[in-house]
Specification:
There is one protein chain. The protein has 18 helices and no strands. The protein has 431 residues and is mostly helical. Helix 2 packs across helix 7, helix 2 crosses helix 10 and helix 2 packs parallel to helix 17. The chain is globular and about 65 Å long. The protein starts with 18 loop residues before the first helix and ends with a helix. The relative contact order is 0.18.
C-alpha cells in the first residue's frame, strides 16, 4: 500500500460565496417548479413519476455520499483524508429532501395501483399487512426521520473539532454563527477530537445499517410495490448500493471541481485520491451490473409469467431503447472508460466518467418507476418534463452543497492519528 502523506497543518479553506451561482441555482429550482406544475396539468401521473424518481435519485445520492464518508471512517481509511469533507457535504441536501418528501406521503390511487387492487385482487390482499396506507405513511415518516437524524449527528461530530481550529476573526457572519452553534458545550480541542473520533467509530455502523434498511423500504414502497405481483429480494440492495456508488461518483466529481477553486485543495486532492476514488467508481460499476444480472438471470431462467412481466415491460413496449441506454451509461461506458491507471488519474476524464455514472443512475431511477405506470411506452414529451424537474432538483442540490462549502472548510482540518491502528496492535502484542 502506498504511503499516504497527511500534512501536520491543514489550512482552513472555504469555497468563496458567489451570488451569481446562487442566482443560477434559484433559476434552476424555478425551472423545476414550473416544469412540475405544467406537467401536473398535462398528465398528473407522469408529473408524480418524475417528481418521485428525482427525489429518489437526489436523496439517495446525498445519503450515499454521507455513507461513503461513514464507511471510510469505519475502516479508518487514510487515502481520502482530503475528500472526507467532500463526501460529507451531501448532508446539506437532507433537510430539503425531508421537505420534498411530504407531498409524496399523500399520493394515492393515481400513483399506487395496489390501493385500488386491494378491494378485488386476492394476491394483493395477502400483502395487506405491509401494503396499507397508514403503515406506508408511518414507515416513510419515521424511517427517513431516524436516518436523517443519524446523518446530521455524524456530520456534527465530523465538523465540530474543526471549529476549535478556526480563527473567528477570519470568518464571515454565517461561518461565525455555525461555529458558535457547533461549539456549544465545548471542552478542549484534544478532548473534542478524541470524543468525535470515538463516537463516530460507534455511530458509523449504526448509520450504515439504518441506511440499508430505510432506503430499502423506501424503494420497495415508491418503486417495487407499483408492480404489486412482482418482487425481488435483491431490489433494496441494488438500490442502496447504487446510491453508495452515486456517492462515490459525486465525491470524485466535486473533488475535481474543488481542485480548480483552491490552491491547497489542488495539491491535497492529488493523484492518489483521484486514483483510489476512480478504482471505487470502477468497482461499483461492476457490482451494479452484477446485482442487475443476478435479478435478470433468475427471471429469464425461471420463465414465470408474474416474474417476467417487470422485465418484459422494460425490454419492449417502447422502453427497450431506453433500457439499453441505461445499461450503456451505467456499465458499458464507465467500465471501458475506467480500466487501467491512467484514466483514473486524468482529472477531466475522471470527471466525465463520474458525470456519466450519475446521469446513468438518474435515468435508472426513472426506469424503475415509469415503465410500470406508463405501459403505453416511452414518451419523449414526458422525458422533457422529467429533465426539467430534474434541473430543479439539481439546482436545490447544488445550492445546498454550495452553502456547505461556503460555511465549512472544504478539507477536514483535524485528522485522526495517522498510525492509530499500528499503535493499537502494538499495545495488544505487548500486553
Amino acid at each position: 500500500m502506498a504511503h499516504i502523506h497527511i500534512p501536520s497543518e491543514i489550512p482552513a479553506r472555504f469555497l468563496a460565496r458567489n451570488k451569481a451561482a446562487n442566482g443560477v441555482f434559484g433559476a434552476m429550482a424555478l425551472i423545476g417548479a414550473v416544469s412540475f406544475f405544467m406537467q401536473l396539468g398535462r398528465d398528473s401521473q407522469s408529473a408524480w413519476i418524475s417528481y418521485v424518481s428525482n427525489w429518489l435519485f437526489f436523496t439517495s445520492l446525498a445519503m450515499g455520499a454521507v455513507i461513503f464518508a461513514a464507511a471510510t471512517t469505519i475502516v479508518r481509511a487514510k487515502w481520502n483524508w482530503s475528500l472526507r469533507r467532500v463526501s460529507l457535504s451531501g448532508v446539506a441536501f437532507l433537510p430539503i429532501a425531508a421537505v420534498l418528501l411530504i407531498p409524496m406521503l399523500f399520493l394515492r390511487e393515481n400513483y399506487f395501483p395496489w390501493i385500488e387492487q386491494m378491494s378485488y385482487d386476492y394476491i394483493v390482499q395477502q400483502k395487506e399487512a405491509y401494503l396499507n396506507v397508514p403503515f406506508l405513511m408511518v414507515r416513510n415518516i419515521v424511517g427517513p426521520a431516524i436516518l436523517f437524524t443519524l446523518a446530521f449527528w455524524f456530520a456534527k461530530l465530523a465538523l465540530r473539532p474543526d471549529m476549535g481550529r478556526l480563527n473567528e476573526a477570519d470568518l464571515d457572519a454565517g461561518q461565525r454563527s455555525w461555529r458558535s452553534r457547533l461549539m456549544a458545550g465545548w471542552t478542549s480541542q484534544e478532548e473534542e477530537e478524541t470524543r468525535s473520533r470515538n463516537v463516530m467509530a460507534r455511530l458509523g455502523p449504526i448509520l450504515v445499517m439504518a441506511y440499508a434498511l430505510v432506503l430499502s423500504f423506501v424503494v420497495y414502497d415508491f418503486a417495487m410495490s407499483l408492480e404489486s405481483h412482482w418482487f425481488s429480494t435483491l431490489f433494496g440492495g441494488w438500490f442502496f448500493m447504487a446510491a453508495l456508488w452515486g456517492g462515490v461518483a459525486y465525491t470524485a466529481l466535486a473533488g475535481v471541481f474543488l481542485r480548480g477553486q483552491d490552491d491547497f485543495a489542488y495539491k491535497a486532492i492529488g493523484i492518489q485520491q483521484r486514483h483510489d476514488v476512480g478504482k471505487l467508481a470502477f468497482g461499483f460499476t461492476v457490482f451494479w451490473t452484477y446485482l442487475f444480472w443476478s435479478q435478470y438471470i433468475v427471471i429469464w431462467y425461471g420463465k414465470l409469467p408474474w416474474e417476467q412481466k417487470y422485465m418484459v415491460l422494460r425490454a419492449g413496449h417502447g422502453w427497450g431503447t431506453f433500457s439499453l441506454f441505461v445499461i450503456v451509461c451505467c456499465f458499458v461506458v464507465p467500465f471501458a472508460g475506467l480500466i487501467g491507471k491512467a484514466p483514473k488519474k486524468n482529472t477531466k476524464w475522471l470527471a466525465f466518467m463520474a458525470m456519466t455514472i450519475l446521469f446513468g443512475l438518474w435515468c435508472e431511477r426513472y426506469w424503475l418507476i415509469a415503465p410500470t405506470l406508463q405501459t403505453s411506452g416511452y414518451d419523449a414529451a414526458n422525458m422533457i418534463f422529467q429533465l426539467g424537474i430534474g434541473v430543479g432538483f439539481l439546482g436545490l442540490f447544488m445550492a445546498a452543497v454550495h452553502w456547505f462549502f461556503n460555511t465549512f472548510p472544504i478539507v477536514q482540518i483535524w485528522q485522526p492519528p495517522q498510525f492509530e491502528e499500528t499503535h493499537e496492535q502494538e499495545l495488544v502484542h505487548t500486553s
